[in-house]
């Protein structure tokens, strides 16, 4: 039996208003009493800030920042020093090549540079496939932020390798200006003015690296050098740029974009390289002069051994002789230009020409004759093939000896001055010894000690 009880109402109406809620939920009439009296789970409907007797610190209502991890700090540091970071990676590639550069025909070096080119081309293509605003695939997301550093390191490594080979292949000023131009292009890519032309500058550098790689590779593979070999390298460079252009057109069908950012800079570099080669700015890779000097006498004393004699024109302990002529001449003296020239293994015989120039006070630099032509072979050693040339038309003044290829590309030049020998007494010659294995000549005393030590060893 269900009975109804009267609600307990306190006698003090103020207490009732304080304890009883002003708005109680209405009870539906059709709900059974048993269900209305069922236990109901209690929930706290009052926020901590409104709970009586609780004091809330306003700072507790603010979201706490995540403690930065080591990787976060690294990324913040990179963002603050972005330009310096790119420069460090570029020069890091340069220093790496300076320390590890080897012969131009080294298989490991050629394979390494080919791998660099493939990796670099892949990164540049991925940048075109996933430009800013397009999320790369998941397997690339963790390393995608390092792509800029990788691109600059690869550019620096490749350009420095080619620069060092160019330095070894010539001593003229024009090729040095060509290398300085390479650095100027890369530096311009970091300036705010050229940032908008980023794809253009990168395509210029990529086109340059591809062709220079073939310029180094083809003479080693074919065993010869010359205009047609260089032209073949340019043709392969053009084919590579055309392949890159076809791939980019799949992702960017805008023909104007491809023309402006790929075709014009890529093929423009090929045309510029061909023109620079024709005017003699690009040296004739892969030959290089390892050593050269002017002597009073060159004598072959035994197989593979040359004696190089010269008169000391300016001793360090005689300051009054500093700045004097490099070649002290007496009647009947002739200058000998002795040089070592390197070519890769199995390289075919080629011809070089030695030209003598005299700085005439009235006519300027004038040449004597058509030069001395010599056929040079590759002996496969680091020191290269040794040869010498001389002239009998010696006059006091400034002289220049130029070694060049048969088609006129300069390989090496050496300047010296000739003047009368004021010493009336008998001459004392300094003798150096050139051997097959040593690139630079040895002092005569050191060579004698080495020969005596080799003779004392039991056979």
Structure overview:
The chain is an alpha+beta fold and 459 residues long. It has two domains: 78-278, no CATH class; 288-456, Macroglobulin (MG2) domain (Immunoglobulin-like, Sandwich). The chain is 44% helix and 18% strand. It contains 13 helices and 13 strands. The protein has helices at 13-19, 33-36, 70-80, 82-100, 107-129, 138-144, 147-169, 173-188, 192-195, 198-222, 227-251, 255-278, 444-456; strands spanning 288-295, 297-302, 305-310, 327-329, 336-342, 350-360, 364-367, 372-376, 385-390, 397-405, 410-420, 430-434, 442-443. Strands 4, 6, 7, 8, 10 and 11 form a six-stranded mixed sheet that branches. Helix 4 packs across helix 7, helix 5 runs antiparallel to helix 7 and helix 10 packs across helix 12 (255-278). The termini are far apart.
The gist of it:
The protein is α+β, with helices and mostly antiparallel strands. It has helices at 13-19, 33-36, 70-80, 82-100, 107-129, 138-144, 147-169, 173-188, 192-195, 198-222, 227-251, 255-278, 444-456, and strands spanning 288-295, 297-302, 305-310, 327-329, 336-342, 350-360, 364-367, 372-376, 385-390, 397-405, 410-420, 430-434, 442-443. It folds into 2 domains: 78-278, no CATH class; 288-456, Immunoglobulin-like (Sandwich).
Number of helices: 13
Low-confidence stretches: 1-29, 31-46
Biggest beta sheet summary: 6 strands, mixed
Order of helices and strands: HHHHHHHHHHHHEEEEEEEEEEEEEH
What's the end-to-end separation, in Å? 130 Å
């Amino acid at each position: 039996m269900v009975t109804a009880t009267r609600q307990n109402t306190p006698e003090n109406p103020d207490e009732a208003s304080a304890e009883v809620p002003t708005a109680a939920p209405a009870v539906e009439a059709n709900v059974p009493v048993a269900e209305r009296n069922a236990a109901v789970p209690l929930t706290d409907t009052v926020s901590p800030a409104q709970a009586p007797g609780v004091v809330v610190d306003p700072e507790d209502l603010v979201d706490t920042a995540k403690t930065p991890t080591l990787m976060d700090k690294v990324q913040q540091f990179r963002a603050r020093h972005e330009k310096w970071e790119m420069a460090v990676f570029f020069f890091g590639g340069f220093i790496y090549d300076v320390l590890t550069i080897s012969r131009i025909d080294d298989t490991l070096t050629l394979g390494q540079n080919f791998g660099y080119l493939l990796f670099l081309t892949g990164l540049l293509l991925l940048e075109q496939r996933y430009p800013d605003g397009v999320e790369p695939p998941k397997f690339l997301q963790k390393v995608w932020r390092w792509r800029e550093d990788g691109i600059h390191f690869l550019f620096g490594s490749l350009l420095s390798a080619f620069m060092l080979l160019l330095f070894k292949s010539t001593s003229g000023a024009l090729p040095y200006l060509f290398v300085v131009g390479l650095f100027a292009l890369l530096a311009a890519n970091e300036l705010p003015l050229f940032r908008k032309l980023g794809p253009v500058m990168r395509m210029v550098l990529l086109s340059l690296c591809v062709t220079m790689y073939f310029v180094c590779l083809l003479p080693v593979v074919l065993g010869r050098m010359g205009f047609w070999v260089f032209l073949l390298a340019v043709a392969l460079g053009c084919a590579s740029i055309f392949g890159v252009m076809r791939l980019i057109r799949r992702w960017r069908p805008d023909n104007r974009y491809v023309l402006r950012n790929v075709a014009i800079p890529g093929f423009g570099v090929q045309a510029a390289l061909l023109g620079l080669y024709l005017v003699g700015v690009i040296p004739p890779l892969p030959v290089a002069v390892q050593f050269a000097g002017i002597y009073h006498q060159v004598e072959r004393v035994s197989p593979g051994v040359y004696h190089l004699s010269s008169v000391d024109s300016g001793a360090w302990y005689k300051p009054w002789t500093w700045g004097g002529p490099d070649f002290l001449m007496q009647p009947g003296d002739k200058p000998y230009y002795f040089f070592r020239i390197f070519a890769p293994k199995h390289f075919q015989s080629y011809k070089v020409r030695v030209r003598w120039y005299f700085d005439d006070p009235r006519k300027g630099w004038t040449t004597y004759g058509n030069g001395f032509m010599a056929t040079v072979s590759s002996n496969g050693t680091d020191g290269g093939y040794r040869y010498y040339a001389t002239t009998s038309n010696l006059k006091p003044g400034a002289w220049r000896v130029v070694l060049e290829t048969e088609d006129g590309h300069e390989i090496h030049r050496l300047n010296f001055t000739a003047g009368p020998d004021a010493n009336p007494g008998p001459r004392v010659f300094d003798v150096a010894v050139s051997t097959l294995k040593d690139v630079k000549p040895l002092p005569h005393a050191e060579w004698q000690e080495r020969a005596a030590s080799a003779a004392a060893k039991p056979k």
